[in-house]
Give the backbone structure.
Amino acid sequence: MQQVRIVVVAGDGIGPEVTREAQLVLDAVAGRHGLAIEFEEHLIGGASIDAHGTPLRDEVIERARASQAVLLGAVGGPKWDAMPVSTRPERGLLRIRKELGLFANLRPATVFPALAAASTLRPEIVGGVDLLVVRELTGGLYFGEPRGRATENGRRVARNTMVYDEDEVVRITRVAFEAARGRRKHVTHVHKANVLEVSQLWVEVVDEVAKEYPDVALAHQLVDSCAMLLVRDPARFDVIVTENLFGDILSDEAAQITGSLGMLPSASLGAGGIGLYEPVHGSAPDIAGQDVANPLAAILSAAMLLEHSLGAHAAAQQVRDAVTAVLEAGHRSADLLLPGERRESVGCRAMGELVRKRLMER
Ligand code: IPM
Ligand code: MG
């Protein structure tokens, strides 16, 4: 048996409900794949602010460092919305990413054939979409200094700084090219080099790194036209690599193309060997605690954990297959129903149970 310790930070809103289903799925597959998983639960985000006055305690970072992987739910909610950015729930998430050195955020957006009709784009446009956004996660505007607010000459001003050094660009670019090698061998680098020096540096460095991967094709795409192409012809993209803020925005767009943000998982990886796994969706406070959230993004994030942190490829595939089978059998959480569709929707717990039942049948 391989002993595995996973730190669980379920966070706020629907975070705890969807994370619970992901844990139960991990429990369900573990034994048969030689894994003995121990979960250790901690607070993050608003829940941690309420209990400890800070969105993430140092102690939790230490526990995460001593673990193999972190399973995260979501952070934030209206209760903490009026707080300044420096103390908000989101700070807990940004801090754990930064402190664990998780510079590479992988956000796959694939269309499950059973859900193609749930997309707001026409089925013939979304059919065959299978792309991976590789988002730089610990640099750029999110972390650049100087930052902050001030009063200058009697006026309020605020500033953030977009800054990258070449090493940060090299390492994320390598992640993208390595990923492309296992896929359709095409990388699109997204930038704003017609305006930003930072983007010009990215173009230069990405071109240099690309020379190490002669088997992978590279295109550079301006971020505004990429946003347009994603809704016009999303199937053209394989791997998209980009800086932090562009990646934040484009990954939500890519998610919506697939029909539901409720389906998309993510992995955040770094040099330290610890991975953090979280659904791309947020804390959805409007539906929290009602057992109507879609746990599939969290469950698919658990599959990414099995794959990237534990090397349990067969187990990961079984989880993905179980999710596909449940959808193909016609089960839908509320977010996946089409407007006017009469089908009865499945709650959060019931959806998790359906996935586990499929896993047990194998
Ligand atoms: C995401 C989220 C976060 C981000 C927020 C909650 C800080 O939007 O993971 O995409 O901007 O990175
Ligand atoms: Mg986002």
